[in-house]
Amino acid sequence: MSFLDKMKNKLQMAKGRGKEQAGRDSRDPYMEAEGRKDRMSGGAKQVGEQLKDAAKEARRTMKK
Questions:
Q1: pTM metric for this prediction
Q2: Where are the domains of the chain?
Q3: Are 42 and 10 in contact (CB under 8 A)?
Q4: Which stretches does UniProt call biased (Basic and acidic residues) (predicted)?
Q5: Residue 2 burial (CB < 10 Å; 0-12/13-18/19+)?
Q6: CA dihedral over 24, 30, 36, 38, signed as positive or negative
Q7: What is the pLDDT confidence band of residue 1, given thresholds at 50, 70 and 90?
Q8: Run of H or E residues at 11
Q9: Residues 46, 10: contact at Cβ < 8 Å?
Q10: Half-sphere exposure of 30 (CA within 13 A, CB side)
Q11: At what angle do helices 2-26 and 29-63 cross, to 10 degrees?
Q12: Cβ contacts of residue 21 below 8 Å, gap of 6+?
């Protein structure tokens, strides 16, 4: 399930980049800000997934 979560987060980041660029091109500061918010939210979720992976690896290492 972690793989799917990571893919969803990357998709959200890409969607945010697209919105941000569209906002710049159309000079719409609200769309640009919304895209930035989506991008940052996806990045924060990615960090959470990386922390979960690190915790799993630490537990796996301690068991040995």
A1: 0.82
A2: 2-63
A3: yes
A4: 17-40, 50-64
A5: exposed
A6: negative
A7: low
A8: helix 2-26
A9: yes
A10: 0
A11: 160
A12: 35
